[in-house]
Automatic annotation (TrEMBL):
Pfam family, one: VTT_dom
Domain VTT: 30-160
Bilayer topology annotation: Multi-pass membrane protein
Keywords: Cell membrane, Membrane, Transmembrane, Transmembrane helix
Annotated organism of origin: Sphingopyxis macrogoltabida
Record flagged with keyword Lipid biosynthesis: no
Transmembrane segments: 12-30, 50-72, 140-160, 172-190
Name of the molecule in the record: Alkaline phosphatase
Length: 201
């Protein structure tokens, strides 16, 4: 996958970074831990501007976040509750669970959205409750930009500073990201197995 990412960035430049970071948020197994350090390395050897690399990474991330937000916003909480009452096992939630999540998200969404953008897997997932529970779009994008800006800038700057050793970022961050996503998937499977209608799971 690294070779494909390298070829796309070299061919498309900043547009390639936007596209890849968009895809990373739509399809999480595409790793930002490779994309942004690689782009930062390109800035270190003069092919790109580091601020523009960070801006491109942030733009792609926000487009990806907005993609899931708009889908979730269209579904809405009422439709989700009806679906959960019929097929709740597959989202491991009942209608009562969704009501509890909504109360929690309304209280804590201000810090949950930016924090989630620092955690692999959750970067994609956090857009869904934000859309389902109708967080205002401007607020969602601002909070997403805060978290995503820190993450994309940190990875790009690491690639910039490490120069030819930028692959060291993937060596350390990549396995951690994979472990987190595997843990999230295992937790989902456990929830599916343990799910009981009526909110007891």
């Amino acid at each position: 996958m690294t070779d494909w990412i390298t070829d796309l960035v070299e061919t498309m430049g900043y547009a390639g970074i936007v596209l890849l970071m968009f895809l990373e948020n739509v399809f999480p197994p595409i790793p930002s831990e490779v994309i942004m350090p690689l782009a930062g390395f390109g800035a270190a050897d003069g092919r790109y501007s580091l601020p523009l690399v960070i801006a491109a990474g942030l733009a792609g991330t926000l487009l990806g976040a907005l993609f899931w937000y708009m889908i979730a916003r269209r579904i809405g909480d009422e439709r989700l509750r009806r679906w959960a009452d019929r097929h709740g096992r597959w989202i491991t939630l009942s209608g009562d669970d969704i009501a509890r999540i909504e109360r929690w998200f309304c209280r804590h969404g201000t810090w949950a959205v930016p924090l989630a953008h620092l955690i692999p897997g959750l970067r994609t997932l956090i857009s869904i409750p934000a859309g389902i529970f109708a967080m205002p779009p401007a607020r969602f994008l601002l909070l997403s930009a805060l978290g995503a800006g820190v993450w994309t800038a940190a990875l790009a700057i690491a690639g910039y500073l490490l120069a030819e050793r930028f692959e060291g970022v993937e060596t350390w961050v990549g396995p951690v990201s994979t472990a987190i996503m595997a843990a999230l998937f295992a937790y989902y499977v456990w929830r599916v197995i343990r799910f009981k209608p009526g909110g007891a799971s």
